[in-house]
Amino acid sequence: MTQAMTNRIAARNHSSIAKAALMITMLAMTSTATHAQQASGVPFIGSNHLSFSVTELSRDGIGTQRATVFGAVYGHRFGARTAPVQSSMILRVGARPLDGLEDGILDAGVTLAASRSLVAGLTVTGAAGVGAMAWGQRAPEPGGPETGRLIVRAPVSAGAAYDISVGGATIAPFVTLAMAYSSERGYVGDQRVMTDNGWRLGNAAGVSVRFRETVLSVSGISRERGLPNGSRVAFTAGMSW
To answer: What is the DSSP track for the chain?
Structure first.
């Protein structure tokens, strides 16, 4: 499924848009002297983070019908944990087959972030990245044209998080604002039928929990293209070492 859709995007003239691309979510990194905490809910305990993710996207990229997309998140933090400025890279990928091998959704992305602690427990972050979401759908009738949609985004973001210790766990509420330039394209068969470019201001808020090597997070994301009703909820669960 993924390879077939990827070939469509690379050619641009194929019968449907590819399902492989890079998507940026509104990511931001925060840190304390011994931990790094991502303001979009990807916490670090060690230098590496790996988790599974569940989120919602529009089923066709434009409507309000929802489709659950499953994926994975990998993050790596550079340098010492005690450095005054923390830097990291986050990779995301998610996919959802729909009605067959030629139908589905794929989103993926990469983010680079840097954060600094202001006072005890409170950190701020700046981040930037590039990515996209892609949809491909078979024709409803045999012999009809296939359709596709691609959204490419290049956002910059700023966020903050506050670490709260509860027993052996750390709970961190976070909030992020992102300004993204988006390019959206629609295809019917081999023909591009729609192009829409522009800037959009979005936001995300949520909470993450880390306990020993276990990390969990839940967040709400608003005003992002390709979301049903303009918003969604994302959940991740994994480990950091």
So the answer is: -HHHHHHHHHHSSSSS--S---------EEE-SS-EEETTS--BSSSEEEEEEEEEEESSSSSS-EEEEEEEEEEEEES-TT-SEEEEEEEEEEEEE-SSTT-EEEEEEEEEEEEEEEETTEEEEEEEEEEEEEEEE--SSTTPPPEEEEEEEEEEEEEEEE-EEETTEEEEEEEEEEEEEEEEEEEETTEEEEEEEEEEEEEEEEEEEEETTEEEEEEEEES-TTSGGGEEEEEEEEEE-
Rounded Cα–Cα distance for residues 149 and 102 (Å): 14
End-to-end CA distance of the chain: 32
Tell me the pTM.
Answer: 0.78
Break the chain into its structural domains and give their ranges. Answer: 2-240
Domain 2-240 annotated CATH 2.40.128:
yes
Predicted confidence (pLDDT) per residue in 123-172, tens digit: 899 999 999 999 988 877 777 778 899 999 999 999 999 999 999 999 99
